[in-house]
Amino acid sequence: MSLSRPSVCERVRLDRRAAAAPDRRVEEGEHRNRSRALHSAVNPLSGREKRARLARELAKLAPQEEIQLAEEGLGGSWPA
Q1: Residues 1, 40: contact at Cβ < 8 Å?
Q2: Do 22 and 34 contact (CB within 8 A), yes or no?
């Protein structure tokens, strides 16, 4: 995993049970340190949120209305 992008240092408070998972992954050698373990857990969450936001916005579209607006915008000049 490459962390070439600039990163920020944030303080996060976890209960003991939540903190045990990244610590276990470090002990098992899956990650080099706790920071990397937490990073790998947070990244998929942000991707899921982006996909969920896209799905919400797509659900707002009315396909027939979008087609009608697109055809009006062409002004009968398609194809040239």
Answers
A1: yes
A2: yes
